[in-house]
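Before a colleague's protein record goes any further, I have to sign it off. Would you go through it and say whether the fold makes sense for this chain? Take the sequence as given and treat only the tokens as open to question. The record follows directly below this note.
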Amino acid sequence: MDYIDTKHVAAELKNRLQKAFPGVKFNVRKGTGTASAWISVHWTDGPCTADVEELTRPMQGAQFNGMEDAYESTENTVTVTVKGRKLTGKPLVDGINTHRDVSDDALKVAAVLWSEAHDGTEPPSSGMLAAFVVGGHVIQENWAPQQMRQIASDVVLPQRWAAAKEQAAAQAARPATAHEDGDEGAEGLRLQHTAEDGTTVTGTRLGDGAAAVLKLHGFKWHRKNQYWYAPGSRDQEADTGFMDAVAADLRAEDLTVTTAQPEATPSA
């Protein structure tokens, strides 16, 4: 049985989260010290914890059994990409902690809803308050700050996330015309290698899914020239195996890719 290091699992998890929840910034970190086999995931607003844990749960290699006071194998396997190679094995991850933060903006909206439910009164800073209903959700008996946090989590954020998904679906349904490199009407991506520029990818669009794949293979965005490039590939021979792996992963995301490599120089 092959084992996948925690740091590679964390990188793959971040890639999957960004792909599943576009527009949400996830902070995925591997633990240190005695918690080195753990991963923490933090994000603000966006999807609920249950939705995120649908993706994190399959990435755990073990889970704690409180009855036995021991870790038990989940029998999960994961596939990750490391330096252009796909590896499949058991994740060396004992647990994944998830935490969603609530933005100040969402809390402000929740405060307005709290006041509307209490005839326009301002929420007090202390004192236990009775339960009430907002947007069909029962807000539990609690102090006002905790009630407003529940309103933000149960009412405001789900409404915003549903609207964000509808907007993303509408944008995806529109025909793509403008590409990130400025070519109007260009079709697909172009993966090529030249001695001057090294290995580059042009023709990407914001939100097309290419960025996550290219970052996974070590590509960086060149702001001046407006293309993705593989660091250290300039003035080097084309790494055909690397380019094939990149092209395969891009095509796996339903992206059209054409490749261009320099012709071999004939020997004397």
